[in-house]
């Protein structure tokens, strides 16, 4: 009897232990979010970061004067701000906030970081984001040498004043963008080019800190105990895995190893038919860029040749072959999701330059003009190499584009597939001929796309620069008449396409899935990053 009772008690203890263990696991996992990105962030230095993956992580571990979340501007490090009557002077009043090392976040941190962004010695690809600030462009281009002339000044530890060249309607949302997130001067100077290269070479002022960074494998974030609004952050831990293959990532979602994932192209129809698919337009535009400075390739600098490429491509067939019909043909440059004055910009200014289907006759006409201008007698004398990264859908689609160009124009086309990181490096160094690349909005305004082409070097590095185009963009920036401004932006868009500076391909639509227990995860272009998991939660446990 005693043995039987002992066995019963032992069984009860084991079961209780198991249940306790399950309870602890559930409690732990219920505050942990796990997802993947296809490439490691090239840098987490806020003033150097330009890519989507750096922005995703940077948005979580740093915070600017404001936080841009789900299309709206909220107080960040600044608890409030005042705007002058002429809308050119913004005075930000900082809250009591700390870096993750316990030191104060001050207005001097922001003055230093913004001037660092504009410092020509840093050569930031996003320096132009600071051109809205008085003398920001002049300082970056070396026209003035004194950073004290730039319209950014800390009046004291908790007051920052920013003076603009002219009223800028989206300046508040722009100040929440990664380029304007703070870097701590002492660490930048200590680590130099290694600043923000590892978790222990930076400090954080955002909702999370990086606990572990296994390069090319995983980034582990944990809640920042020093964050001023830590009580609003429900997740205790976020694991961001680096999974280059989208099929692998989706299978991990199916195996309950990831909490949400994008759907690989081959599975889109199946997932949609099962009713599990979520879709949204993220406003990323994929387009063809040309290296117009490439030696031995004079046709890349010829606008008729570049436009011939654009009309020879069947965008609908390309999207169907590469993405199972998911995404929209880009027959213009400005995406349909961006705001105009009262409606979407594309609604206020309807326009199509290129065609959804290939216009072979027009493509050949333009090619013949280009050949006459260049003294080329046969299209087979033209050889181009298209560089593309190995992201989802691109490999399948590039072969379709290759076939279209060979068939419709008779030119020779080679393909070079590289990693996402290498593509960025080649783009910035000019080591390419033709490249399929992408751009996503930094703020909800057409200027975020048009301003991209005002730079001929740095992040753009295509060799295309045009005085009239730059004048149009500057005129739009410097007028306080927003209706007139949008008309100028439309004129700039048309001019850009007429000059063949860029060949739009498609506006990306994303198909994704998530577990039902994941709540308040924002996936939209109108947020600080995509995905934005800052206020996400796990309800009901995993």
TrEMBL record:
Signal sequence bounds: 1-25
Gene Ontology CC entries for this record: ATP-binding cassette (ABC) transporter complex; cell envelope; periplasmic space
GO molecular function: peptide transmembrane transporter activity
InterPro entries: Peptide/Ni-bd, SBP_5, SBP_5_dom
Chief place where the protein resides: other
Alphabetical UniProt keywords: Signal, Transport
Pfam families: SBP_bac_5 (PF00496)
Xref: PROSITE patterns: PROKAR_LIPOPROTEIN
Domain Solute-binding protein family residue range list: 72-457
Subcellular location: Cell envelope
Domain of life from the UniProt record: Bacteria
GO biological process, one term: peptide transport
PANTHER family: PERIPLASMIC BINDING COMPONENT OF ABC TRANSPORTER (PTHR30290), PERIPLASMIC OLIGOPEPTIDE-BINDING PROTEIN-RELATED (PTHR30290:SF10)
Family under the similarity heading: Belongs to the bacterial solute-binding protein 5 family.
Protein's UniProt name: Oligopeptide transport system substrate-binding protein
């Amino acid at each position: 009897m005693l043995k039987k009772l002992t066995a019963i008690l032992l069984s009860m203890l084991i079961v209780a232990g198991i249940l306790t263990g399950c309870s602890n696991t559930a409690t732990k996992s219920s505050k942990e979010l796990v997802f993947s990105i296809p490439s490691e962030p090239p840098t987490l230095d806020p003033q150097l970061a330009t890519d989507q993956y750096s922005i995703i992580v940077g948005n979580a571990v740093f915070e600017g004067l404001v936080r841009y979340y789900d299309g709206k501007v909220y107080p960040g490090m600044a608890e409030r701000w005042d705007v002058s009557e002429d809308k050119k002077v913004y005075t930000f009043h900082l809250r009591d906030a700390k870096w993750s090392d316990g030191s104060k976040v001050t207005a001097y941190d922001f003055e230093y970081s913004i001037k660092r962004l504009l410092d020509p010695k840093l050569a930031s690809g996003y320096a132009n984001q600071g051109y809205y600030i008085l003398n920001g462009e002049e300082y970056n281009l070396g026209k003035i040498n004194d950073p004290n002339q730039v319209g950014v000044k800390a009046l004291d530890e908790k007051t920052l004043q920013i003076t603009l060249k002219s009223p800028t309607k989206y300046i508040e949302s722009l100040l929440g963008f990664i380029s304007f997130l703070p870097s701590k001067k002492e660490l930048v100077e200590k680590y130099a080019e290694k600043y923000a290269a590892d978790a222990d070479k930076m400090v954080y002022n955002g909702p999370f800190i990086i606990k572990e960074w296994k390069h090319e494998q995983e980034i582990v974030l944990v809640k920042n105990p020093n964050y001023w609004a830590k009580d609003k952050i429900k997740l205790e831990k976020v694991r961001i895995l680096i999974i280059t293959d989208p099929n692998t990532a989706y299978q991990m979602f199916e195996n309950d190893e990831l909490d949400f994932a994008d759907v690989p192209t081959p599975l889109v129809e199946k997932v949609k038919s099962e009713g599990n698919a979520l879709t949204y337009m993220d406003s990323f535009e994929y387009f063809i860029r040309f290296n117009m400075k490439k030696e031995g390739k004079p046709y890349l600098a010829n606008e008729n040749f570049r436009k011939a490429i654009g009309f020879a491509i069947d965008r609908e067939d390309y999207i169907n072959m590469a993405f199972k019909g998911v995404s929209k043909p880009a027959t213009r440059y400005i995406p349909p999701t961006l705001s105009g004055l009262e409606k979407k910009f594309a609604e206020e200014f309807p326009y199509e330059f290129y065609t959804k289907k290939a216009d072979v006759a027009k493509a050949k006409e333009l090619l013949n003009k280009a050949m006459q201008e260049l003294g080329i007698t046969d299209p087979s004398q033209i050889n181009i190499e298209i560089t593309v990264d190995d992201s989802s859908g691109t490999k399948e689609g590039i072969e379709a584009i290759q076939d279209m160009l060979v068939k419709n124009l008779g030119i020779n086309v080679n393909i070079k597939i590289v990693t996402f990181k290498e593509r960025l490096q080649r783009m910035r160094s000019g080591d390419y001929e033709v490249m399929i690349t992408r751009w996503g909005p930094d703020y909800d305004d057409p200027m975020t796309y048009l301003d991209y082409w005002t730079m001929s070097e740095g992040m753009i590095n295509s060799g295309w620069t045009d005085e009239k185009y730059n004048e149009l963009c500057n005129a739009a920036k410097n007028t306080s008449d927003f209706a007139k401004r949008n008309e100028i932006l439309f004129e700039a868009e048309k001019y850009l396409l007429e000059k063949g500076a860029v060949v739009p391909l498609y506006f990306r639509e994303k198909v994704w899935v998530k577990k039902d227990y994941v709540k308040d995860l924002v996936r939209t272009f109108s947020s600080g990053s995509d995905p934005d998991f800052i206020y996400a939660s796990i309800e009901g446990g995993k």
